[in-house]
Amino acid sequence: MTIKLDALINSLEGIETITDSAQVAKLSQDYHNFSPVLVPKLEGKVGDIVVRPANEAEVLKVAAACAKHRIPVTVRGAGTGNYGQCVPLHGGVILDMTRMQGIPWVKPGVARVEAGVKLAALDKKAREIGWEIRMAPSTYRTATIGGFIAGGSGGVGSIQYGLLSDRGNILALRVVTVEDEPRAIELHGDDVHKVNHAWGINGIITEVEIPLGPAYPWAEVIVTFDDFMTAAKFGQALGNADGMIKKLISVFASPIPQYFHALQQYIPEGTHAVSLIIAESSLEFLPGLVQQYGGQITYEKPAEEAAKGTHLIEFSWNHTTLHARSVDTTITYLQSMFPSDCSLQVVEQFYHHFGDEVMMHLEFFRLNGAVVIAGLQLVRYTTEERLNEIIRYHEEQGVSIGNPHTYIMEDGGRKVIAPEQLKFKEIVDPYRLMNPGKSKVIQLPI
After folding, report:
1. What are phi and psi of 408, to 5 degrees?
2. Coiled-coil segments, which residues (predicted)?
């Protein structure tokens, strides 16, 4: 590999490269340390060199060099994923896309950006003309748009707009192939799903075109409840209130809110909390719904104030796990999809069955036009065997698990890789150099 790397470096004159072992090791990691199962499996897995292209022309040059010398390439954004998506299993090049921060244009309802643009930066730019990004992970301050599309699925805003996989949430992708003579391929419409959530195995995303939503003044609210199931039913009722515009509905069973140090004064110990981001125009209707379910509004910030300081986004989705682990590193998490059930019977069953061993954290979003519940439960980890028992129990009760404790794509939430993605990989990565080892069905590099 040393001879190959020397040849590769010589062919990349003028492109930023990093060979310092400490820096390379740092840029070979993501947040897979959320999983005590993944940590030992990915220990010592690092790239040989980091390359930071500044534009698509440099990406094409890197792709050609990797193909020529048969060197694996793992594409990286900000590294905010949780499953080892950007951890290289077979060394090679870490292709860090964070220098590609150009925004070719933002128009009413749509934006075109380079893959390394941070979601928060794009959101700020779009709001200048009265629009905003439709959805973002809780890591939106640091996450890049390319990384979000390659490894994410939804997040804050999904209660209004659904998931990235829904038609219309990605308009176009520009992708560089890794072959003898690399090409830049433009994908539009349904073709974008050949690359969406493919963990960087299907070409190098260089540009993204996404739709925008109208920018609302967003207020932030915390509602507390003495009973968890009442909190969950309130969240469901708000989710189903189509006339009320919302961006976030997060439900936390006690004792999860006690991990939120910045919010503890608003959430009495022993109570269950619902965090909301809601359009100011809908605030007038909230107290009546809260009263209907016996809750209490303990925190409310109008949009102008909410734009400053602490944001409830950063206590939601996977940031919940981050806050809990900052207090207790033995805590890990699950990702689950509860069956549609207006009575929330399965949620209640799991809440009582596991108690504090599996602490309930629910996020509401839209799927096929209906409001559904994702669980990002916090788990008090003891052994891998017990964790697998918990996962099996969920699946036996009809709860789908997107397993965050594996780096194999099919063993996570996908179960299978779509045939159109496999066919596209044959075209764009004939030597199987892109993020090798992350799939059961895709062979290792030639």
Report:
1. -90, 125
2. none
